[in-house]
Structures are given as structure tokens and as C-alpha cells.
Amino acid sequence: MGPGLEEGNLLGPLQNRRQFDKLCGLVDDARAGGANILTGGKPVEGPGNFYPITLVGDIEDGAPLVREEQFGPALPILRFRNEDEVVARANDNPNGLGASVWTPDLERGRALALRLESGTTWINGHGGIRPDVPFGGVKSSGLGVEFGQWGLDEYCNRQVISG
Q1: 3 state DSSP class of 151
Q2: Which residue among 24, 39, 51, 126 is buried most deeply as judged by most CB within 10 Å?
Q3: Contact 30/77 with Cβ under 8 angstroms?
Q4: Which residues fall within 8 angstroms of residue 17, CB to CB, at 6 or more apart?
Q5: What pLDDT, on a 0 to 100 scale, did the predictor assign at position 134?
């Protein structure tokens, strides 16, 4: 983690101070609520909005780190018993920008992905965005898409002549 122009850095700073402060607050809230910070969890000292990759276990579904879009490198880890439970819990979230399914069984992963209410669901990866593929969220995560032909259509005005 560090400046993006330095070789070897895979994770740069958060985009702005407001987002950095939000992420700090979400992780601090999780810690205060009894969650277990498995790695990371403390901002880097010094200039810039650098926050390390943070894994948070033993966290409840209702915790803000789980319910809100934090747009930072903090991942809550939640246990589940079966696919029906995990789909119901994931779909209960008010947001739906992106999801990921991790499995060695791609057919099962695709079937599970179809059940998730998200704008994009990646299988065995997360966050890969391509300029030729539409990207956007559902529920409180947005309206419409960017990228691909569908995203370009957002910038076009149509004229309909009838009769």
C-alpha cells in the first residue's frame, strides 16, 4: 500500500478525506460493537488517505460496516449455514452495487449469482470493471449504468417522430 506511482504498490489512498473519515468511523464502530479486527483496522500515519486492507470478523448483519457502502478496503466477514440464508441476508441489504461469489463450481456460482440483487456479480473475483460492459447498481446503489453501449445511451437524446 502506498503511492500509486511507486512500483510494487497494489493499493493506493482513498479518493478523498471525507471517504477516508467515513471508513475510519465504520471500522471503529465495528470494533466498539465487538467485532474482531483480523488484520488492518488502523489508518496509516502521515500524509494521504491511506487505509490498509482490513478484515473484520464476528460482526453482525446490522452493523454499519455491513449495511453501508464504505468504498474502502474493509471487508466484513459473515458466517452462514446455507445458500438460501446467505442470499436472503445479502438481498436484505439496502444497497446493491456489486457482489461476488467464490466457488470452485462455476455452474453453482452462476446459479447463485442470478439470485443476488446486485448490479454486477463477479464469480471468483471482485471489482473488475471493463469499459465495454455496463456497470451500475440497484436499490439504493444507483439508477442506470455507465460504460458499454448502455452507458453511452445515457448521453444521447432520442427524437421520436410518429405519424
Answers
A1: helix
A2: 51
A3: no
A4: 49
A5: 92
